[in-house]
Amino acid sequence: MRALVLESNKSLNYQKVKMPTSVQDKAVLVRVKASGICGSDIVRGFGGKAYHYPLIMGHEFAGTVEESVAGSKYKQGDRVTVFPLLPCKRCEACLTGDFAQCTNYDYYGSRRDGGFAEFVSVPEENLFALPDHVDLLHAAMTEPAAVALHGVRQVKVTIGSTAVVYGCGPIGNMTAQWLRIAGCATVIVVDIDQPKLDIARQMGFVTINSSDLDPVKTIYELTTGHGADIAVEAVGHPATFLNAVRSVGRMGQVVFMGNIQGKFEIGEVDFSNLLRKEIQIFGTWNSKITPEGIDDWSTVLKMMDKQLIVAPLISHTPDLSDGVEIFNAIANKQGSFNKVIFKI
């Protein structure tokens, strides 16, 4: 089969590789049809953050069952998407179903070869069958959509609430959608990327370009001085972490979702306001596949291509053979990219 292989830092090659072998009992061979580029893939591939080389990246992928095993509930041709985390099933977190908190996990696309390939062998319990209404290309966005949903589920959303999301990339946009679905009457999105803000505005969100306006001041103006009820930081920049805290009013809730690059510092005045306003800050990480049926992934698949709209977020659908060129362009900021999904 062919795959996009990270041979060393900043060195990708589209080449022939060996077909995958079974990773454990009841493994299912999946023919990958769509595989998305995550921001973490850029850092991993071009920032020296890979666990090992060579590596086939890609943890946001969907496809069809190519080969199953006796007794499996999946058959050839079934459309599936893949939960990329492989928990140890033995640690305390795993025993409570909190697999993202596993202390000894494996992961497609980072710790083991992932979805930038024609085939991947996947344990049956990591597969989710696609409902008929979900487009196979869009299914590659199940993982980031579940991450966004998991973050929103950290807070209590009151019907009619006002929320602000810092970051208008795919996860930020989907976070805004989940907040609206959960009951927020107004969702404000902040970014410096005007094309992404334009998409958000067309989807009915209030937008602020923080290159032109002070976002915190503008949020207080839009909320008649009260501040937002909920703020989500989905960028990973120290300044936006602080602005998220500053943006909420009394009894506000803040979710730190972005994977920070740099140092987050808070001064005396802001910390005092955090205490006096009794602001709650929540961390969030990855997503959950338990309890079955109401977990993050099942919920995403129920809502995708219905209430959760992902098509406007997909800017490029190249062939995997164009992967080297696409990755270099993204890493070197040559062009405007939103969600890039390889059609394989």
Shape: globular
Give the low-pLDDT segments.
Answer: none
At CATH's second level, what is the architecture of the largest domain?
Answer: Alpha-Beta Complex
**Within the CATH hierarchy, at the fold level, what is the topology of the largest domain?**
Quinone Oxidoreductase, Chain A, domain 1
How many structural domains in the coordinates?
2
Give the H and E element order.
EEEHEEEHEEEHHEHEHEHEHEHEHEHE
Distance between the termini: 11 Å
Helix content: 25-40%
In DSSP terms (H or I, runs of 4 or more residues), the helix count works out at 11
- Report the sheet with the most strands, covering strand number, pairing sense and barrel closure: 7 strands, mixed
Strand percentage, roughly?
Answer: 25-35%
Number of strands: 17
- Structural class designation: alpha/beta
Descriptive report:
The chain is an alpha/beta fold. It has 2 domains: 201 residues, Alpha-Beta Complex (Quinone Oxidoreductase, Chain A, domain 1); 129 residues, NAD(P)-binding Rossmann-like Domain (Rossmann fold). It is built from 11 helices and 17 strands. β13, α8 and β14 form a beta-alpha-beta unit. α4 packs across α5 and α7 runs parallel beside α8. The mean pLDDT is 96.
